[in-house]
User: Fold these one by one.
Assistant:
Number 1:
Amino acid sequence: MATKKMAIIATKGALDMAYPPLILASTAAAIGWEVQVFFTFYGLQLLRKDLSGIAISPLANPAMPMPVPMPVVVSVMPGMQAMATSMMKAKMKKKGVASLEELRSLCQEAEVKFIACQMTVDLFEFSKDDFIDGIEYGGAATFLKFAGETDVCLFI
Amino acid sequence: MNFDKEFDASGLACPLPIVKTKKSLADMASGQVLRVIATDPGSVCDMQAFAEQTGHTLLSSGEEGGKYVFMLKKA
């Protein structure tokens, strides 16, 4: 049986959207698939050494379950995003959900290839020092070369 | 049923039971049996899918004392 391949484009940097690419990549690697994740635009946040800035906002996020119903006018108040983020992180920890850092290192251990989009690295004026080691830098052609050979290809 | 190694994934949520099962199998020899304990209800379907994808044999899948218990024979 030929090794299956999966390519993911990770474009989002909010806490909730940070999970799917890392969960799928780590699991696919665990079942023996070859995996590449291409991080572009806000997805680049997931490659930063320090992930503590990754947050979730109740604002413009009407589907987010809240302990009490929260009017939009409250959601915009200072500190609400930090509060929602710390509540979500505490809940995740309680429920045994891995941290982003743990999932990311499980991916790297399992040889998932991480590629940072060079164009957006330059656009946001990131330095390579902002990012973890062991990643590659490339563009659309780099992604498509691998994506063209995959069994599963996702845009997240 | 006899087993050679045990991995307790109690309290862990998706994808950790699967990803860490894979890690637990890494230092085992072909034919050895890993016993996995989990509390994640999703692990019942996930362990089956993991076995099918990887070629390891899921010898048994059941519940004991409110937890899910799997026996995996390494390919």
Note: Strands of chain A lie at 5-10, 34-39, 113-117, 136-138, 152-155.
Number 2:
Amino acid sequence: MTAIDVAAFTGHWEVALPGVIVAATAMLVMAVDMIVRDPDADALPVLGIAGLAVAAAAAVWLWGESPIGDGFASTLRGDRYALFFTVLLCAGSALTILMSVDFLREHPLPRGEYFALVLLATTGMIFLAAANDLIVLFLALEIMSVAVYVLTGMLRAEPRSIEAALKYFLLGAFATGFLLYGIAFFYAAAGSTRLGVIAGAVAHDGARPFMILGLALVLVGFGFKVALAPFHVWTPDVYEGAPTAVTAFMAVGVKAAAFAAFARVVLAALGGIAVRWSGLLWILAVLTMSVGNLVAVSQRSVKRMLAYSSIAHAGYALIGLVVATPAGGAALVFYLAVYTFMTLGAFGVLLALGRRDEPGEGLADWAGVGFRHPVLGLSMVVFMLSLAGIPPTAGFAGKFYLFSAAVDAGYVGLAMIGVLNSLVSVYYYFGVLVQMYMVEGTRSLVPPGARPCLLATIVVAVLVTLLVGILPAGPMELAREAFASLH
Amino acid sequence: MQLPLLTLIVFSPLAGAIILAMLPREPTVGLRRAAFVFSLVPLAFAGWMLERFQPGEADFQFVERARWIPQWGIEYRLGVDGVSLFLVLLTALLVPIVVLASWGDITRRVKEFLAFLLVLETGMLGAFLATDLFLFYVFWELMLVPMYFLIGVWGGARRVYAAVKFVLFTLLGSLLMLIAILYCAWRVQAESGSFAFGYDRFLAVPFTAREQLYLFTAFALAFAIKVPLFPLHTWLPDAHVEAPTGGSVILAGVLLKMGTYGFLRFAMPLFPTAAETLAPVVVALAVVGIVYGALVATVQPDLKKLVAYSSVSHLGFVMLGLFVFTETSAAGSVYQMLNHGLSTGALFLLVGMIYERRHTRLIADFGGLWSVIPVYASFFLVAMLASVGLPGLNGFIGEFLILLGAFGPRPWATAVATSGVVLAALYLLWMYQRVVFGPLTHLENAGLRDLSAREIAVLVPVLALCFVMGLYPAPFFRRMEPSINKMLARLRAPAVVAATPSAEAALHP
């Protein structure tokens, strides 16, 4: 073990800037909450979103400055890959906060803690995407996870929220154990937890038993966090029990950040033994897609259906990692970005159609909603089409990118399984549209009061989903540059 | 910079749909008028395109190109040639007719119906005009969603089942086609070093026979479901029966042609070896479809189902004509696509009109209509005879050319297919007889109104075109043939070329 080099810690401090800004915002939100003491104050969400915007702006600035060196004794990387995810995660969190404003007005939740926890989780996510050392990665993962455990259980009066939090916490802790074990084995094999050093050991020694063990254990740990089958069993219950805005946050933020770290570990540290994991990931991808889609078909609750659909989407995204070519990796990054907006939007509509006394999560509750609430209805059409991968939406562009990367790399079979899964998914996504437009309904779940922030979230998500779908070239180029910086 | 005529044709309906969506929900008459005007805009542009179209030119005209997704070499490329020219016109013509026709049967959620119809028009026109396969695929899928809503929201009792079946069948085919398109683009890259989805770039790739077999199958599956080729037709009767009249007209008139158009434009010229290898299979299925569709149509008690199954039979002729690879029958096939669009469109309109009056489509509930509603009966007679293929009407020319060109290469298949013509006469005439002639058996029918001025305005252009195309086909063939022949030149063996006369020569010896 090398001695601690102080200069190495102080150099390139700016790589941590976006994360630090978000963490500081979280503190500020808590402080302001204590001073203001007004449960309806708009100051907290405004502050939170402003902090996220500044962090994203910092990331954009660093993007322009890149390549910048690693910071903090190269435990954090400031590459475009990390910066891309930073901006994406900030956007996802900002939309989550925006989405939650009206929800918090109707539910008696501690607003200050809620926003602060979202911001703290985001801090963890940002560091997760930038971590270049397994210990830092672990710390970031835990910062994120602990915050999300609490958020899941925030509806203290609701048993299912508590149940979800407990389930998530217990299983999450268990999975973290796997991850730590894996890290320990990597350390045993390579003598370091730096990804670069592990990569060197892999290049030098090949696949030694400890390395393989580490790989297997880390795979389980990440498999849990991104909800790959067969490590997905917690997802539906937790997603269903958590407050809807938190579910959306979990489905997009936690997943994207964990995927970012997962891909970095697998490619940057273990790229040398790709033959050992690509077959395994192939199986996991097929399994995840198929399980997610097939089980989603039989769901009678929209929220639960979206939970299974998010599992299926992790399977699609994994195709990019199996392929592992520059195009495949870029497709993965692009897909996660696209997925963030369409999923947030879908959860937004779910939230908008519910009331405190009647969450309206059952599919049957959605009967006739499309014509009664044209804006929400059409937005949901866009999100469902996008999730199903129908053009001209972002979801189609994302899937097209993934499948084309797979075909280019010779994975025609995987691409075929992917499209057949898309076909299955059409059945349940269109099932929502059937309820909304083709079944007569009389109940109106939407409360009389306006929910401007929620509507704004949905509109933003619709616009992004459509714009990226029609003009994908720009975002695609960013995703390509982001992934190219990984090596 | 020229006027982007094709872009205007494709996107003017979409613009109309967006404006329509912003108009107030009431009064519906205003919405209907607005939609009618919006649907005339692409028709006017399409008419202008026809006026400026150079006959005798085989290549794409009015070509528009713009970079779209440069990473993959995807371009926004539109072009029209002799094959797509009249299909575009047919589409642009049928949509205003459907808008007019919906005056009667769509009374609920009028605004959404009209908006979806216009979005659908953009999808259809775009699919006919796209010359980049990515763009084609986008438009191809764009058609799916509005049609799904048209069937599912405004359809009959089992509409949801029919709509979901329609979507799943269509998507199954098109998703596999997507993989095939990706594979082709990858081959373009292997050949030339960069990705491209342009039609001409795909044509330039020398696919091996084995690759062609797979790729052709993937494309053919997508198109065969749309046509629909026997035994992939099972979605069609459901979709037709449940769809509102306008939906049926569009479905039969244009969407089915999307399948045959896809064969002629993409599957056949891109993978000629495979097309030739698999031609016996396709011809056999086409012939089975002709006879099967006709036989099933004969025993249908429901008018709409009868017309739906007759589509299976008629489209079988088109497929037969395409897959014998002669210029005569290919020209006949393209002509027959237009004929079927007009005559079957008219039949669906007529069935819809009688349904609006009586709320039944069962043949047994009618009889002796001639004495009650003579104008309706006359229009019905013309549409029915056009569908039968009576000389002097359009259907005759298409079927005649198909059979003429097919007889040389495939005499047996042609002989069986000819029985389809006889059967068509049987089931259509018998149906007409039961509905229109004889004594008035149901008292409810005694009080039926005859056609209104609006309904006559709906039918006149369609049936007039049936006469025009039946009596004076030369202007159509002059514009169609060079492009069709160019596509066929990639396919057939040189010996067959000399053996069959061109369509024009066959009709005017």
Note: Chain B touches chain A through 35 residues (CB under 8 Å).
